[in-house]
Amino acid sequence: MANNNNSSNQLVVPGAQQAIDQMKYEIASEFGVNLGAETTARANGSVGGEITKRLVTMAQQSFGGAR
Asked: What GO biological process term is on the record, naming one (predicted)?
């Protein structure tokens, strides 16, 4: 995740970026992916997809359970 100042995605919770970055590197480690420009878009994208999947699961659990 790039830290672009031009991004329309703004974090509401202070410190959330550090938590997201930690999750990103944990998932990359689990998947055996070395994040960076030299890595394929598919490999980098798999990490981003897994982050989204886990965040959705966490949100569902906090709202009373997943469907």
From this structure: DNA topological change
DSSP code at position 33: -
In whole angstroms, give the CA distance from residue 49 to residue 60: 17
Using a CB cutoff of 8 Å and minimum separation of 24, what contacts does 26-35 make? 27/51, 27/54
Cα distance between residue 39 and residue 48, in whole Å: 13
Q: 20 Cβ partners below 8 Å, 6+ apart?
A: 1, 51
